From TrEMBL:
This is Arginine decarboxylase. NCBIfam families: PRK05354.1, speA. Signal peptide: none annotated. The active site is at 551 (proton donor). Keywords: Decarboxylase, Lyase, Magnesium, Pyridoxal phosphate, Spermidine biosynthesis. SUPFAM superfamilies: PLP-binding barrel. Pathway: Amine and polyamine biosynthesis; agmatine biosynthesis; agmatine from L-arginine: step 1/1.
Length: 722
C-alpha cells in the first residue's frame, strides 16, 4: 500500500515520517513516491536557507540587508544588526551594535540601564547628518562636473517628521550649506520660523499648502524677522491676499508659484501630479498671476517656481522629463519679466525599501543620490542654455530621503501561535471517530482513501476538501460531534501537508500597535524592511506573520519586501530567554505623525543615540518613555485624575475600609495610570518608571560621561480636578 494511502487509512503519520515542527524551514519531508504539489505563491523559502553552514552573511542575503540597508546597516560577526553612523565612511570600530542599545535601554536602572519599556524608536542623528551631507555633496558634484553656474540649496519638508529634535538637528547640520525648511500649515510655519532663528540667514523658509489671511500674515511676519521666506501660491486666489496684506504690513513679499505639470508617474505616489493634481496652477492661471503682479508693480517679487511630480519618483528618465518641463516654464516666466531666481523641484527623491533598484515599484527606485542630482542639474542646464537664461538656484524638498534611515522601530515578540497541526493521538482521538461518521460522510472518507491508494494527488486534495466541507455542514446541523469534526480537520490538514499543498505559517504576536507605529502599512500597503536584529548567526526555522496587540483583524503584517507573504523567523526561546527583537527600518518619515491611538495604544519610547568613544561606541543623549495610559486617555478628553477619584470612591463603597488596603489599591491604580499601555514582557521592565518627565541626557560636550537622571516616586494624585 502506498505510504499516503496507509497514512489516510490510519489517520496517523507512518513511522519514519516526522511532522513535528511543520512550520520549520526547509519544508518537511514528504512520503516516498509522492511528488509534492508545486506552490506558485511567493514564499520565503530560498536556496540560501538550504546552505549547509549558516552564517551572518547568509542572513544578510536572506533579508536583503545589503540592498536596502547600505550603507548604514549590516550584520556583524555576533549575528546582530550593526549601525554604520557615517555611512560608507564608517570604520569597523565605529559601528554600533543595535542589540547593545536595546539592552542598555530596557535594563533596569539598578543594572545600569535606563529602565524604559518597548516598543522603542532609536534615532541616529549621525545617520541624519550623513544623509544631509550626502545629498548636498551629490548636487555639489553634479554642479561642478557639468559647469552649472549657480548652486543647490535644499529644504526639509517638516511634514515628514515634525519631531523637535529631528528638525533642530537638520537646521544645525545643514547650516553650513544654507539648508532650510518647508512648511505646509500654520503650526508648521511657527515651528520652522522658530527653528530657523538658529540657522543660516540665507536658508529658505518655503511656505506651501493652502493659505488663509492668518497664514500669509504669519509668513510676512517671518520676512520682518529677517527669515528668507517664500510664499508659494497653491491657488490663484491666494495672490490677492498676499498683495493686500503685504501692503498693510509694509513688507515686500518674495512670491513663488506651484505649477501643474503634465508630467506624472503612474505609481501610488504620483496622484498629486499631472493636470488634475490637487495643488498648483495651470498655464492659464500662471499667466493671470503674472499679469496681476505686473499691474500691482510687483512682478519682480515673483522669484521661485515650484512643482512636484510625486513622491518616490521611480526613474531618472521620468525625473528629467518633469524637470525639463518645469525649466521651460521657468524660462518663460523670465521672458515675461518676472524676477526669477529659484527653481524648486519639490520632493520625489525616493529610497529603496526592498533593495531591488526597480524602476517599476512604489517601494524602490532605480537610482542613487548622485544619479538623481546629475539628472536634475543636466535637465535645468540644458533648457536654460538653449533659452539663454541665467542658471537658477536649484532647491529640492527631499524629506523621505533625508529622515527615513535615521529612525529604527524596535519591538519584541511576546508569544507565537505555531502552525503545527497535532496528530489525532495527541488530541486523544482515534479511528473510532472517523468510523462513526454518517453514511454520507463515510462516502467522502472512502473516496479519499481510494484516491490515496491510486496515488492521485490532485483528486485526493479535491476529495479532502469535499469531505471536510460535508462534515462541517453536518456539524452545523447537529448530526456530527465535535470530536468527529476535530478528527476530520486533523486528517485533511495532514493530507494537505503531506503532499505539499499547504504552506504552514506561524503567527508571532508583537508588543506593538500597527496603527500607531506603522500606519502606512495599514493605510496604503507601504512595505518596510522588517528583520530580526539579533540571532542572525543562526538559521531561521519558522515562517511567520506578525500580529499586533490591537483587537483588530487588520492589525497584522502579512506582506514583506521581496513579494513575500511570510517572514523567516527564529523559534522563540522558553522562559528565561533574552526575548526576540525585530526592527522595522527606513520608517523615519511620516509614521509618527500619522500614527493613531487605536485601542489607546500610544507611541513608543524614544532614544537618541550618537556615536561616542566610550566602551560601547555609543551614548544615549536623550531618552523619553512612551505615553502613559493617563496620557492617551487625556488625549481622548478623559481626565485621569477624576477617573482615579471615582475609582477610589467605588473602592470605599465596596467595603475597602482598611486604611492599608485602600492605600495599596490607590497605589496600584496610580501605577496603572502612569504605566505605558503596552505589555510588560520581562521582570527587568516590570520596575520601569513610566513617567514622561524621565529622561537620560548628556550634553554633546560631555557625551562620554552621560549618566541617568534620577526620577522620583510616581506622582500621587491626592486631589480632584473640577
Amino acid at each position: 500500500m502506498p505510504a499516503l494511502a496507509y497514512y489516510v487509512d490510519a489517520a496517523t503519520i507512518p513511522p519514519g515520517y516526522a511532522f513535528a515542527g511543520d512550520s520549520s524551514l526547509p519544508p518537511p519531508e514528504t512520503f516516498s513516491g509522492v511528488t509534492p504539489v508545486t506552490n506558485t505563491t511567493a514564499t520565503i523559502t530560498s536556496s540560501v536557507l538550504n546552505h549547509p553552514h549558516w552564517s551572518p552573511s547568509l542572513s544578510a542575503s536572506l533579508y536583503k540587508i545589503d540592498g536596502w540597508g547600505a550603507p548604514y546597516f549590516s550584520v556583524n560577526s555576533s549575528g546582530n544588526i550593526s549601525v554604520r553612523p557615517y555611512g560608507s565612511e564608517t570604520l569597523p570600530h565605529q559601528e554600533i551594535d543595535l542589540m547593545k542599545i536595546v539592552k542598555k535601554v530596557s535594563q533596569p536602572k539598578s543594572n545600569g540601564g535606563l529602565g524604559l519599556q518597548l516598543p522603542l524608536i532609536v534615532r541616529l542623528p549621525d545617520v541624519l547628518k550623513n544623509r544631509l551631507e550626502s545629498l548636498q555633496s551629490a548636487f555639489d558634484f553634479a554642479i561642478r562636473s557639468q559647469g552649472y553656474e549657480s548652486h543647490y540649496q535644499g529644504v526639509y519638508p517638516v511634514k515628514c517628521n515634525q519631531d523637535r529634535f529631528v528638525i533642530e538637528d537638520i537646521v544645525e547640520f545643514g547650516s553650513s550649506f544654507r539648508f532650510g525648511l518647508e512648511a505646509g500649515s500654520k503650526p508648521e510655519l511657527l515651528l520652522t520660523m522658530s527653528c530657523l532663528c538658529k540657522g543660516s540667514p540665507e536658508a529658505f523658509l518655503v511656505c506651501n499648502g493652502f493659505k488663509d489671511a492668518e497664514y500669509i500674515s504669519l509668513a510676512l511676519v517671518a520676512r520682518k524677522l529677517a527669515l528668507n521666506t517664500v510664499i508659494v501660491l497653491e491657488q490663484e486666489e491666494e495672490l490677492d491676499l498676499v498683495i493686500d496684506i503685504s501692503r498693510k504690513l509694509g513688507v515686500l513679499p518674495v512670491i513663488g508659484l506651484r505649477a501643474k505639470l503634465r508630467t506624472k508617474h503612474s505609481g501610488h505616489f504620483g496622484s498629486t501630479s499631472g493636470e488634475k493634481g490637487k495643488f498648483g496652477l495651470t498655464t492659464m492661471q500662471i499667466l493671470r498671476v503674472v499679469r496681476k503682479l505686473e499691474q500691482a508693480n510687483m512682478l519682480h517679487c515673483l522669484q521661485l517656481l515650484h512643482f512636484h511630480i510625486g513622491s518616490q519618483i521611480p526613474s531618472t528618465a521620468l525625473l528629467a522629463d518633469g524637470v525639463g518641463e518645469a525649466a521651460q516654464i521657468y524660462c518663460e516666466l523670465v521672458r515675461l519679466g518676472a524676477g526669477m531666481k529659484v527653481i524648486d523641484i519639490g520632493g520625489g527623491l525616493g529610497i529603496d525599501y526592498d533593495g531591488s533598484r526597480s524602476t517599476d515599484s512604489d517601494i524602490s527606485v532605480g537610482y542613487g543620490l548622485e544619479e538623481y542630482a546629475a539628472a536634475v542639474v543636466q535637465a535645468v542646464r540644458y533648457v536654460c542654455d538653449r533659452k539663454f537664461v541665467k542658471h537658477p538656484v536649484i532647491c529640492s524638498e527631499s524629506g523621505r530621503a533625508i529622515v527615513s534611515h535615521h529612525s529604527i522601530l524596535i519591538f519584541e515578540a511576546v508569544s507565537a501561535t505555531v502552525a503545527n497541526t497535532p496528530t489525532m493521538s495527541s488530541l486523544g482521538l482515534g479511528l473510532q471517530y472517523l468510523e462513526k461518521l454518517t453514511d454520507e460522510a463515510c462516502v467522502g472518507y472512502q473516496n479519499l482513501k481510494e484516491a490515496a491508494v491510486r496515488g492521485e494527488l490532485e483528486t485526493c486534495l479535491l476529495y479532502a476538501d469535499q469531505f471536510k466541507e460535508r462534515c462541517v455542514d453536518q456539524f452545523k446541523e447537529g448530526s456530527l460531534g465535535i470530536e468527529q469534526l476535530a478528527a476530520v480537520d486533523v486528517l485533511c490538514d495532514l493530507v494537505s501537508k503531506t503532499i505539499g499543498a499547504s504552506d504552514p505559517v506561524s503567527t508571532y504576536h508583537m508588543n506593538l500597535s500597527l496603527f500607531t507605529s506603522i500606519p502606512d502599512f495599514w493605510a496604503i500597503g507601504q512595505l518596510f524592511p522588517i528583520v530580526p536584529i539579533h540571532r542572525l548567526d543562526q538559521r531561521p526555522g519558522v515562517k511567520g506573520i506578525l500580529s499586533d496587540l490591537t483587537c483588530d483583524s487588520d492589525g497584522k503584517i502579512d506582506k514583506f519586501i521581496g513579494g513575500e507573504s511570510s517572514l523567516a523567523l527564529h523559534e522563540l526561546e522558553g522562559q528565561g530567554g533574552d526575548g526576540y527583537y525585530l526592527g522595522m527600518f527606513l520608517g523615519g518619515a511620516y509614521q509618527e505623525a500619522l500614527g493613531g491611538l487605536h485601542n489607546l495604544f500610544g507611541g513608543p519610547s524614544v532614544v537618541r543615540v550618537s556615536k561616542s568613544d566610550g566602551p560601547h561606541s555609543f551614548a544615549v543623549t536623550r531618552a523619553v518613555p512612551g505615553p502613559s495610559c493617563g496620557d492617551v486617555l487625556r488625549a481622548m478628553q478623559h481626565e485621569p485624575e477624576l477617573m482615579f477619584e471615582a475609582l477610589k470612591v467605588r473602592a470605599e463603597e465596596c467595603g475597602q475600609e482598611d486604611e492599608l488596603a485602600r492605600a495599596a489599591l490607590s497605589s496600584s491604580l496610580i501605577r496603572s495610570f502612569h504605566s505605558m499601555p503596552y505589555l510588560v514582557t520581562n521582570s527587568s521592565c516590570a520596575n520601569a518608571i513610566a513617567n514622561n518627565n524621565a529622561y537620560y541626557y548628556c550634553d554633546h560636550d560631555n557625551i562620554n560621561n552621560a549618566s541617568a537622571t534620577v526620577v522620583g516616586e510616581d506622582e500621587q494624585w491626592t486631589y480632584c480636578c473640577g
